[in-house]
Design a protein that fits this description.
By secondary structure, the protein is mainly beta. The chain has a single domain, classed as Porin. The protein contains one helix and eight strands, in the order H-E-E-E-E-E-E-E-E.
């Protein structure tokens, strides 16, 4: 995780170097077309879910934006598995980390279409019973998701907006953390 944070920090610093150069008259600077933001999801209770998903995008044209994102998800399901012979309860815990690429096309000023490919590494413990013993085995899997859908944006200040999207995962794999439709909300700065 430190590597990811360091990488993001270096990218931001490198963009600040670009910002100090004056562009030719009438031509916007590279940094003027950048957008930063993402989403944060939290749920607590029997199921605990934490999702941190920062993104960096670039406005190719006034209507077309493309970018990359990082994702970290933590999931814990209390008392997921119960050993019927002893009554012992076990929690299911998992961590997912990955990245995505996206493209967003603004059909109207506040209405956009969105397409995204995401790849997650899913780390979890598998439970199984063998010879009267419960065994926990660390495992991992890779999950690919292709999302399509759209959303609305609401400007909230001069250079930023809130967004809400409804997306459909076209590649529902067995261990996917998503149920269709996937509803996302977040904020982007720089538009």
């Amino acid at each position: 995780m430190r590597v990811v944070i360091s990488f993001i920090f270096l990218i931001i610093l490198s963009f600040q170097g670009f910002a100090q150069q004056e562009p030719p008259a009438g031509k916007p600077r590279f940094t003027d077309r950048l957008v930063f933001g993402g989403g944060l999801g939290l749920q607590f209770g029997t199921v605990t879910f934490i999702d941190v998903s920062p993104v960096v995008g670039y406005r190719i044209t006034e209507k077309l934006e493309a970018g990359i994102g990082l994702t970290y998800k933590y999931y814990k399901y209390n008392d997921f598995y119960v050993d019927l012979s002893t009554g012992q309860k076990y929690d299911l815990k998992s961590n997912m980390i990955g990245g995505s690429v996206y493209s967003r096309y603004f059909i109207l000023q506040n209405l956009f279409a969105h397409v995204e490919f995401e790849r997650l590494k899913y780390n979890f413990e598998d439970f199984y019973s063998s010879g009267g013993q419960i065994t926990r085995e660390p495992r991992h899997d890779y999950i690919n998701s292709l999302f399509v859908g759209g959303g609305l944006k609401q400007p909230v200040f001069r250079n930023g907006y809130l967004f809400i999207m409804a997306l459909w995962n076209l590649t529902e794999e067995p261990n996917t953390p998503y149920n269709n439709p996937v509803i996302r909300m977040g904020v982007l700065l720089g538009r």
